[in-house]
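Query structure, 262 tokens:
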């Protein structure tokens, strides 16, 4: 076998070739190839990347290339920072970059490095996910942002960069389902709204907690009426059961919700 290459066999019995390289006592897999020559050339190129900081960097990734862009980032990072990370991460001084692909780069606080070095980020339908115990988890949920939240309405990226997931750059505006903030006649009110067959306004309230409880109350009313829809429930952080129950009884919701015919 040529240097950096070893033969492997698929389940159907066909042979293929794997390439790998050792750097800083770390065994780095480079990928699988149909021919021994391609696997060896991938090994040679990886060696050149690891040796030449001036010639090769993330931004001059060649096309076509025997190394995937994912592997390219891994090699450049371990060369420049001396830390081997399996995922396509490049370390900066106080944050790190995660490369979804060549044109999509996310920024994270360094405190999240351990998590993202173990969890791969995937992009589907414009949403970003990681995998937890075989389930897809929306990236925004790590910031306390609900699945149905809308950027610009329920949360904002402070500097306007929606690829910057550093904690200081994410501000939650509406932490509760069905609740939005409004300014009416110079007064701040919180509107609770629910979708049935179209949108129904549940009511407007002085606090977002009251609006969130009103939303919960409306979903319970609809469930009793026989509407079989899996509405999410709001959890009011810091409110005990007795206080919640008292608020629940006190808060009024729109008669349209109470009288709707399911």
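Result returned for the query:
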């Amino acid at each position: 076998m040529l240097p950096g290459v070893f033969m492997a066999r698929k389940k159907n019995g066909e042979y293929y070739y794997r390439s790998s390289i050792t750097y800083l006592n770390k065994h780095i897999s480079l990928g699988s190839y149909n021919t021994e020559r391609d696997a060896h050339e991938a090994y040679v190129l990886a060696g050149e990347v690891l040796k030449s900081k001036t010639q090769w960097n993330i931004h001059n990734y060649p096309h076509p290339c025997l190394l995937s862009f994912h592997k390219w980032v891994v090699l450049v990072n371990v060369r420049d920072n001396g830390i081997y990370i399996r995922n396509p991460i490049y370390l900066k001084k106080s944050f790190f970059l995660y490369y979804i692909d060549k044109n999509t780069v996310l920024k994270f606080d360094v405190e999240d490095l351990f998590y993202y070095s173990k969890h791969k980020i995937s992009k589907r339908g414009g949403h970003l996910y990681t995998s937890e115990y075989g389930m897809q988890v929306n990236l925004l949920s790590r910031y306390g942002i609900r699945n149905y939240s809308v950027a610009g309405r329920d949360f904002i990226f402070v500097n306007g960069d929606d690829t910057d997931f550093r904690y200081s750059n994410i501000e939650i505006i509406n932490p509760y389902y069905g609740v939005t903030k409004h300014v009416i006649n110079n007064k701040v009110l919180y509107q609770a709204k629910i979708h049935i067959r179209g949108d129904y306004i549940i009511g407007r309230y002085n606090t977002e907690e009251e609006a969130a409880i009103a939303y919960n109350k409306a979903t319970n009313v609809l469930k009793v009426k026989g509407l079989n829809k899996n509405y999410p429930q709001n959890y009011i952080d810091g409110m005990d059961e007795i206080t919640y129950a008292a608020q629940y009884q006190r808060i009024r919701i729109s008669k349209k919700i109470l009288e709707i015919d399911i």
